[in-house]
């Protein structure tokens, strides 16, 4: 595996306020045990195949230290698992924007979060197949 696939560059981060608004207004939602994922196809001029953002609710984790820890773990797990998502997006010729929102009330270990991210990516690929046929 090349080292380029194991990075999480600035172009892959979802930063635009407009993109967030579009995602929450008309994005597709899917749920896993630990995450809520909101995604939508992005424009052909998007700088990366998938632009991702990560969120942890203040309601469940009052301390910023805990929220930041979970977001770091989520980003790292995504960075290690994103190659499967990118390969699938190449196959169906699609670019997406997504936000992964942490739903649990406890702080999971990195191994647990990594396993849940892998399952979420699998579920997202299945959802992409179903929705992309109708687009």
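^ Assign residues to that structure.
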């Amino acid at each position: 595996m090349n080292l380029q696939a194991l990075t999480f560059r600035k172009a892959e981060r979802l930063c635009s306020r407009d993109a967030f608004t579009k995602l929450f207004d008309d994005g597709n939602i899917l749920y896993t045990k630990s995450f809520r994922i909101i995604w939508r196809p992005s424009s052909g001029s998007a700088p990366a195949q998938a632009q991702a953002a990560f969120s942890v609710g203040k309601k469940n984790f009052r301390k910023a230290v805990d929220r930041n820890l979970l977001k770091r773990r989520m980003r790292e797990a995504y960075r290690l698992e994103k190659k499967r998502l990118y390969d699938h997006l190449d196959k169906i010729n699609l670019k997406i924007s997504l936000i992964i929102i942490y739903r649990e009330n406890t702080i999971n270990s990195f191994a647990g979060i990594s396993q849940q991210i892998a399952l979420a990516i699998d579920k997202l690929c299945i959802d992409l197949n179903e929705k992309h046929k109708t687009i």
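The CA atoms of residues 77 and 114 lie 5 Å apart.
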